[in-house]
Description:
Blueprint (H helix, E strand, L loop, with lengths): L3 H6 L2 E5 L6 H5 L7 E7 L4 E6 L2 H11 L3 E8 L5 H13 L25 H8 L10 H20 L4 H15 L3 H4 L4 E5 L9 E9 L2 E9 L5 E8 L5 H6 L2 E3 L8 E7 L3 H4 L3 H15 L12 H8 L9
Antiparallel strand pairs: 1-4, 2-3, 2-4, 5-6, 6-7, 7-8, 8-10, 9-10
Amino acid sequence: xxxxxxxxxxxxxxxxxxxxxxxxxxxxxxxxxxxxxxxxxxxxxxxxxxxxxxxxxxxxxxxxxxxxxxxxxxxxxxxxxxxxxxxxxxxxxxxxxxxxxxxxxxxxxxxxxxxxxxxxxxxxxxxxxxxxxxxxxxxxxxxxxxxxxxxxxxxxxxxxxxxxxxxxxxxxxxxxxxxxxxxxxxxxxxxxxxxxxxxxxxxxxxxxxxxxxxxxxxxxxxxxxxxxxxxxxxxxxxxxxxxxxxxxxxxxxxxxxxxxxxxxxxxxxxxxxxxxxxxxxxxxxxxxxxxxxxxxxxxxxxxxxxxxxxxxxxxxxx
Length: 318
């Protein structure tokens, strides 16, 4: 059994939060957080609850309460949730007014669903209150997918789409950290963007992070050539890279160390055999992602990322 002293001794993290900032920005995207959280409200009240997904739970509470100013969190295992929650509610009630309410008419007693949908919201729904289903991250992603799918289909219809996809997949799997989790938020890939389009030149895709282009591929109709422009952290490149590769200075005011490498279609994998180039690409990508969400996330093609993720190299079966 977890005693009050045990709960207070645990490491508790606290974030001041704003409604305009996505919860995942505060808590990170590498994994879901399981434990006990405490909401702080403008009037000084508190609310203590348990969850297996802290970011999702905060988003749900924001739909119900618009006066949340901070959240504290203690991580724990599933087997500790109920006991630790009761202990922390009791401790919190000693110093603050709490918004927690006891509901005795919930069917079935404790349930795993309580970790996903707040028990107070369930009780209100049971009593006839109609919930307001919000435009949460899952819904917004579905709308974005519907909006960007026609351009993905246009790209996928190209005769040389397999080669285009292979180069893009090589880049993302080699350079972007945790692409399946961070894609569409901290970086994005757009299909057939209209950027810098002319009668002779058309982009096939663009990869962005924060407010900078990391990689784009364009096709020239006059001579039929296709190439990628890869932006990297120029401070990581070696003398051999500069001697043997076609490199130009970057033009991004927000990233003055950027330099551009020009890569013919089909040569992306060979390029990353150079450790210095790989390090330069990773340094720029991660550095930009750490600055915050991508300014171009609304143009992200979920279908194109799906195709990339299915291109991953599986380990050989022994």
